[in-house]
Amino acid sequence: AQKVTQAQTEISVVEKEDVTLDCVYETRDTTYYLFWYKQPPSGELVFLIRRNSFDEQNEISGRYSWNFQKSTSSFNFTITASQVVDSAVYFCALSDPNQGGKLIFGQGTELSVKP
Amino acid sequence: NAGVTQTPKFRILKIGQSMTLQCAQDMNHNYMYWYRQDPGMGLKLIYYSVGAGITDKGEVPNGYNVSRSTTEDFPLRLELAAPSQTSVYFCASSYLGPTNTEAFFGQGTRLTVV
Q1: DSSP B73
Q2: Model confidence pLDDT, tens digit, residues B21-44
Q3: Bridge partners (DSSP) listed for residue B45
Q4: Beta-carbon separation of A100 and B88 below 8 A
Q5: Does A7 touch chain B (CB under 8 A)?
Q6: A36 and A22 in contact (C-beta within 8 Å)?
Q7: Are residues B43 and A50, on separate chains, in Cβ contact within 8 Å?
Q8: Which residues of B29-67 are buried (b: 16+ CB within 10 A; e: fewer)?
Q9: Neighboring chain A residues of B103 at a CB cutoff of 8 Å
Q10: N or C: which end of chain B has fewer CB within 10 A?
């Protein structure tokens, strides 16, 4: 069975601190995708990144970076120099394109960035 | 492009009432999904569709029905509303094929059953 675990329920940091959100996944499939979505207080889901299982390169996009390690089944997300606007719930998700692309979500990590 | 459009945005139902949540996408995506999000939880899949005329159950299908008569539309039907169906509902679509896209989500429908 597929599963995504985000062990950190809530994280609180002060602005400009770096913060890492952890994501651990379980799957027996060799082909899969991993995602991060952001859900701000307004409630919509904002796509941040998609990674396929064959691409373990880390990725950086501005203040955001992602560390994908198949050896530990982890796909962690780091925000550098956090800002108040980063306050949101962040979801990690897993999907198998050979099984309808259904997303399996973690429970989410609520990040609060205080000024 | 409007993307994925859900209506209504908010609704209050009485126990036993029925309603249909509408979802439409204009990206010609073949796959569509309905998820529900309970407070403090991640999203769980209710139903999904791989194309017009084809639907399948997700993790939490009880109390819901869907249909997919066109590529664009994927309505979710609640027949006898129960308090346990109080949740935020998200519709999503994606394209799976030679190239795959991520799932695009609608703005959500906040449903309260009283």
Answers
A1: B
A2: 999 999 999 999 999 999 888 899
A3: B35
A4: no
A5: no
A6: no
A7: no
A8: bbbbbbbbbeeeebbbbbbbbeebeebeebebbeebebb
A9: 35, 47, 95, 101, 103
A10: N
CA gap B16, B79 in Å, rounded: 8
Residue A28: CB partners within 8 Å, gap ≥ 6?
none
A44 touches chain B (CB under 8 A): yes
A103–B contact, CB cutoff 8 A:
yes
Model confidence at B80, pLDDT cuts 50, 70, 90, reads: very high
List CB contacts (< 8 A) between A45 and chain B. 90, 105, 108
State whether residue A40 sits within 8 Å of chain B by CB.
Answer: no
Average pLDDT over residues A63-88: 96
Of A47, A100, A107, the CB nearest to B102: A47
In sequence order, the 6+-apart residues with CB closer than 8 A to the CB of A105 are A4, A91, A92, A93, B42, B43, B44
Backbone angles phi, psi at B62, to 5 degrees: -65, 130
Contacts of A43 (CB under 8 A, 6+ apart): B88, B107, B108, B110
